[in-house]
Design goal:
about 45% strand, single chain, about 140 residues, four-stranded antiparallel sheet, 1 helix, Thrombin, subunit H, mainly beta
Length: about 140
């Protein structure tokens, strides 16, 4: 449970080697290292949410960063730690971490339209050292 990792109870999610928890206006990020005998969890620090509006509804991770759904919009924290607010309550949204062609896309469905965002800055971020988002092991430098 998240209480054992973060010592508090709040909305959490994880994928690959990162586990995240949102508390108030902060995301706590922990790296899971299963082969480390001393401690399987390493804190990667906290990320402030500047454009956070409303309660957290859902969160997910993508190669380009974290996506947090709030009551009235989405906050994207990209690999460079930029907060990007996307206003409007979505009907549905999705990232594509297993895709070969859409790994940098965020698709947002609203009642009357579809919006597609492409985040390309992650191609220039050191994949081993990044704090936010998934590591892309397929990119050749």
């Amino acid at each position: 449970p998240s209480e054992e990792i973060f010592h508090s109870k709040s909305y959490s999610w994880g994928i690959q080697d990162k586990i995240c928890q949102v508390i108030d206006r902060t995301i706590k990020v922990v790296q899971y290292i299963p082969w480390n005998e001393e401690s399987k969890f390493k804190s990667l620090g906290e990320i402030g949410l500047r454009d956070f509006k409303g309660e957290v509804v859902f969160g997910d991770s993508a190669f380009f960063g974290f996506v947090i759904e709030c009551d009235n919009g989405l906050v994207v924290i990209d690999s460079n730690l930029n907060n990007i607010w996307i206003n409007g309550e979505p009907t549905n949204w999705r990232v594509f971490p297993r895709s070969k062609h859409y790994e940098n896309h965020l698709h947002i469905v609203y009642e009357d339209r579809l919006e597609i965002y492409s985040f390309n800055d992650d191609y220039f971020v050191d994949q081993e050292g990044k704090k936010v988002g998934l590591k892309n092991f397929n990119w050749k430098r």
